[in-house]
Known about the structure:
The complex is a heterodimer.
Chain A: H1 12-16, H2 23-31, H3 48-66, H4 69-101, H5 107-140, H6 144-149, H7 154-187, H8 194-223, H9 229-251, H10 253-257, H11 265-273, H12 281-293, H13 299-333, H14 342-352, H15 356-372, H16 374-395, H17 406-431, H18 443-448, H19 453-483, H20 487-514, H21 530-563, H22 569-600
Chain B: E1 2-11, E2 14-24, E3 29-33, H1 40-47, E4 55-60, E5 63-64, H2 69-74, E6 76-79, H3 91-101, H4 107-119, H5 135-148, E7 153-157, H6 165-180, E8 184-189, H7 192-198, E9 201-206, E10 209-214, H8 216-222, H9 230-238, H10 242-251
Parallel strand pairs in B: 3-8, 3-9, 6-7, 7-8
Antiparallel strand pairs in B: 1-2, 1-4, 4-5, 9-10
Amino acid sequence: MPEGSSAPRRTSAEVTGPRRVTGRQAVLSVVESATDPLQHGKLPDPSYNHLLRPKVLTAVSRAAKTGDRSHGWRWTVVAAIGLLFWSFVLFVLTRVLTVFRNTPEIGSLLAGKVLGLVFISFFMILLLSNIITALSTFFLAKDLELLVSAPVNWLTLYAAKLTESMLHSSWMIGLMAVPIFAAYGWVYQGGLIFPFIAIATFIPFLIIPAVVGAAIVIVLVNAFPARRTKDILSIVAVLTGAGVVLLFRLLRPEKFARPEGLQSLVDFITLLRAPTAPYLPSEWVQRTIMSSLEGKTDWLALYLLWTTAGAALVMGARLHQSLYTAGYTKAQESTQRWVRGRIVRRAGHFVLQPFGILRRELVMKELRVFFRDTTQWSQLILLAVLVIVYVFNVKFLPLSGAGITTFLVNTIPFLNLGLAGFVLASVAARFIFPAVSVEGRTLWLLKSSPLPMRALLWSKFWIGTLPLLALAVGIIGVTDAMLQVTQFIFAVSIFTIVFLTFAIAGLALGLGAVFPQYDTENAAQIPTSFGGLVFMMLSAGLVGGVVLLEARPVYGYLTAEAFGGVPDPMDMYVGFGLAGLLCLLCTFVPITVALRRLERLEL
Amino acid sequence: MIQLKGLTKRYGTFTAVDAINLHVPRGQLFGFLGPNGAGKTTTLRMIAGILRPTAGTVHIDGIDVVDDPIAAKAVLGYIPDRPFIYEKLTGAEFLRFVAGLYGQDGPVIERRMTELLTLFDLIEWRDELVESYSHGMRQKLIISSAFLHKPKVIVVDEPMVGLDPKAARILKDLFREYTKRGHTILMSTHTLEVAESVCDRVAIIQGGRIRAAGTMDELYQNVGAGAKGLEELFLRLTGENAARELVEVLDA
Lengths: 603, 252
């Protein structure tokens, strides 16, 4: 078999040997060579391992590059942050679980419920992530043309692509699960057998959403007469939105946050005992893990996980066999062939008239490229989910009842600014950070034209910032209204979020140009680069800094409101002034640095 | 060896390939000519089994590509116009991978790789990552991969793009010698000089339909009386207004 090839690698000198063949001789030796495509009279059947081999070699090659000194320090930083994150989760969860363990009656029920909630969220994330990844792995990947035109068995192709899709979608959840399992195993003294139980539980848990995600994509690609990827992604977005709302209804997080609303402890225990989602694999994971930790492993739950994964694989493969070829053809036809953009063009010309031809065309180009790029569209789905989750979280905050004061009601929206800042940073990482990198293949055109780089950067800044601003003001306005804050807090949060938006956008655009990824073909991968990580860290610092600087004047105001008195005006000037200054610096400095980089860039 | 019957491809209401009938016998080098957007690449992709025809059939060596794709693809080598190569593989690793797709490995393939890489002056680069290859080198590597398993039929889309004169010459020789030994090549090209010098027969396609097909002599006889070469013949069939439009554009 191909992967068994054990021919030793030889250097070019050994291969060519001392004899140099002439062109004519070389042609003849090629055409008269004794290779036969139907070796031994049977059809070729490349194996699963063989199809995955280029991916493995690519990973090895990347890892070798990572070992270089120039890349090594970057990965050291990433590894350090990862370890920090793991330690943090392990620490917090161990503390919480220790408290649960020492609570009689309901302690282990609560621990099980938390595990169930975590895994139901994991399941939804995995499903969404698998849908988006499967669309690209099964239908849009560039190696498909090579694989589909080769004599590759449908089942082998399915297995290889499913594995690829599953690994791409699940690695992050896999990393997050490690400290969670570790904390449960540690606190409940799972013993040496526990890691094996955890792995045996987790593998089918990853397989099921991968198969379901791939199956959904295959059906969608086949079902759409319009055959446009954008339509498929819109449907996925709607389904996801519905899924998230359903998830929240299943979880009913507000009930757990306000146990005093229940009649008695018995009611609370009944609520805890009730399965969150009995037919979802997350419930089976919870049952297996908790029962194993309590010393009476629920083998039925583990059996359910594996049999469901097995059955899903068989059904997914059958679906692939009957629908994939037709779907692959349709996916290739799905490119939008004609664009009727006359109305948009006229509207764009009208609105952007005052900015001149150059800026108008730059802006129009940015908008067109963005909305026609399916990789960008798929990220909009993630954004929609993020916003829905965010607003729902605020809606269900337990902000009434005993012990809830006006002070607290107004403090939470202020802290909410920090959370909104992180949401904005992750959105900016997706949409603004890659803005310069995606010009990689067209930089020759931009650099050889009389276009000032300043115009390019500022066009990109405004195109990225305005939608971000609408989102920021929207979520802060809506959540403030939900929380019924005072006018002062409303004004502070709106002004702060506007300044923060400009600063985050400036950081994203500037750092995107300082750490460009000109060679990438998929804009979705740019935010996960080293530069993306630096941006996220600096954004977190910025958001934290602004919240800290404003904390003192806001605290002063709220204390004065609650207990009477006048807030110190100096606190106000210094706090808000420094926060504003920090935001302005983060807006202009990165763009100035980026401008210098772009002007000096040699292609 | 290649038999197309009523081959049709529609995208919504647009017909890219319109009921093409074509027979390329064994041992022939067949040129597929046509202006941009005529339907050449779509036809070749249907032959390679990448696109499913809306109607009609494709047979390679008597095997229906839709009914028995594995057997049909086993005897086919396909060179696309915009080929994909794994950037992080070396040239040799890529070739071994492609050979494996056709069920081949071992010393025979290693020797054949050496022959092909030597032929295209890539032997010194065999252990370099593809990401460091120039456009022409990538083209030569992808051509090598199609010849690696010595298929009965090679379908090639615009093979000369990006090749230096020496490589172009070698490729023409290779095509000629390959077909002399009973293999079949279907090649789409814009380079009329290439088609004229190496192809046994050509077909001119426009608007998804074959406008003319045959040997050069047959074409001159049937549709190109008085034409001073394939270029004039091609323009007569596909773009007789081109010269007038050119003058209009220049005068505008």
